[in-house]
User: Fold ABC transporter permease subunit from Paraclostridium bifermentans.
Amino acid sequence: MKNKYYFATTAIVIAFVFIYMFFTQVVILLDPILFPNISLIINAFIESIPKLFECLWSSCKLLIPGFGLALISGVTIGVILGVNPALNKVFKPIIFALNPIPPSMLTPYLIAIMPTFYLSSVAVIFIGCFWPILGATMSGIVMIDQKFLDYGKVIELRGMKKLFHILLPAAAPSILSGVKTALNFGFILLAIAEMFATNSGLGYFIQYYADFSDYARVISGIIFMGLFIILIMVIFEKVRNRILFWTLNENNK
Assistant:
């Protein structure tokens, strides 16, 4: 079943490449500067591979701490607020007020108040990833079926045992949904942060060559970043399916 879908995806990508080649090399309806032909893109991609991997490492040094801190704090605070109805009611209006604020709007302010551009970039990624994980964790905890909680009381599960045997497993589908959303936001904010607040990384690579109108390398950077994102999301799906092995929808994939 999966192979059928992968075949269709590959066919769409190949069709897009041929359409691009048709409009850039046959009828030439697109600006050759903004839309360089495929051979130029391939050559630029190959020549830029060492630099792209160097930029990838720089991007990971921003993404990993920002996302990691958001994951730990979002799940921890989400569980605390989820199991405590009083705290939930107190903080929910504050969360609803702060959650919709785009983290990218805070970039200039964070650059001004943080001691380094690195910390300001990590902070942007952290803020963008934190809210989806926090909200998903709170919702997952609050929506746990009462029968699971009653079962925990019957076998006298308390404290950390209750957390790891009842709360987190029952809320895992919601939490992982929030983590996936946070990953998507993380990649978007990573590119934005690198364009404004760093002198390295994939976002910086793309912005740097765009300033010089070298769009063959710009497209190469976009393709490389897209491949990296696909790899990360595939790994995430594998991990999620392993964690949620008991769910019907995951087993049918």
